[in-house]
Design a protein that fits this description.
This protein is of the alpha+beta class. It folds into two domains: 142 residues, PK beta-barrel domain-like (M1 Pyruvate Kinase, Domain 3, Beta Barrel); 89 residues, no CATH class. 14% of the residues lie in helices and 33% in strands. It has three helices and 15 strands. The chain has a seven-stranded mixed beta barrel with strand order 1-10-9-13-12-11-15. The chain is globular. 35% of the residues are buried. The model has no long low-confidence stretch (mean pLDDT 95).
């Protein structure tokens, strides 16, 4: 059974809202361009731009701990590397992420917006050549809408797929079939992807990405009803090419 890519997303600033894409050029062993390129330190962290080894996610502002971030809508302008932040549809801050002056403007806003949730002065770190994740391996995250619909059926309520921070959303497959792809290759359009790991879910999925409310316990529900806490898979990129909404996704 062949599926279809129905959504393509990147997260230029870790913890902020996704940037939807229609297409993206990718390279082997890479990620989507500008995905997790920047992060906001919550006080000093061990992140070293000269030696960017992975550091714990809790070093940064993340939705799992800092649900207040859900009130912000982030827009990323790729050509200028400018980030625009909106709250309730109104622009509240804007700055060029690749310029120190632009980052300072954004940092000042974040400090005031987050208030007592900050452990120190916020600092935006990273750049377009970085991929700031706890695992450190450049990859894409794939979720299956048929699996989401099955989870919605069992939970008895709708679930926003953005809770799972996907890069690629696919439809038209059997529910839960993606969990059998580990150590196998799938193709999306003309791009080959090596599926390397099931995604063990954490408490970040309990936060509604639009309201910031902690209104579910998805990991516990998965464990209780399905016997595991996995939802989605990670895949490394094995060939260069263009990923696009509407591409056929062919499983193993």
């Amino acid at each position: 059974m062949t599926g279809v890519v129905t959504g393509l997303f990147r997260y230029p600033v870790k913890g902020l809202s996704p940037d939807p894409l229609e297409r993206a050029e990718v390279q082997p062993d890479g990620a989507l361009p500008f995905d997790r390129a920047w992060a906001i330190e919550n006080g000093p962290s061990r992140f070293d731009p000269a030696d960017p080894r992975p550091v714990p996610d809790i070093s940064f502002l993340i939705l799992m701990r800092d649900e207040r971030l859900a009130a912000l809508e982030a827009h990323f302008e790729e050509e200028t590397e400018r980030l625009v932040l909106l709250r309730a549809g109104r622009q509240v801050a804007s700055g060029q992420l690749s310029a120190s002056s632009g980052r300072q403007i954004l940092e000042q806003f974040i400090a005031a917006f987050m208030g007592d949730r900050m452990r120190g002065r916020p600092k935006i770190v990273g750049g377009k050549e970085y991929f700031i994740t706890e695992g450190g391996v450049r990859c894409v995250h794939i979720i299956n809408l048929a699996t989401l619909r099955d989870l919605e059926r069992v939970m008895g309520r709708p679930i926003d797929p953005i809770r799972f921070r996907p890069n690629i959303i696919v439809d038209g497959l059997e529910p839960w079939s993606e969990l059998s792809w580990i150590d196998r290759e799938v193709s999306a359009g003309h791009v080959r992807l090596n599926v390397v790991e099931r995604t063990a879910r954490c408490a970040a999925t309990n936060v509604d990405p639009k309201t910031g409310n902690r209104d579910m316990d998805i990991p516990a529900f998965l464990k209780r009803e399905y016997g595991h806490e996995d939802f989605g898979v990670y895949a490394t990129i094995a060939s260069e090419g263009t990923l696009a909404v509407g591409d056929a996704l062919t499983p193993p």
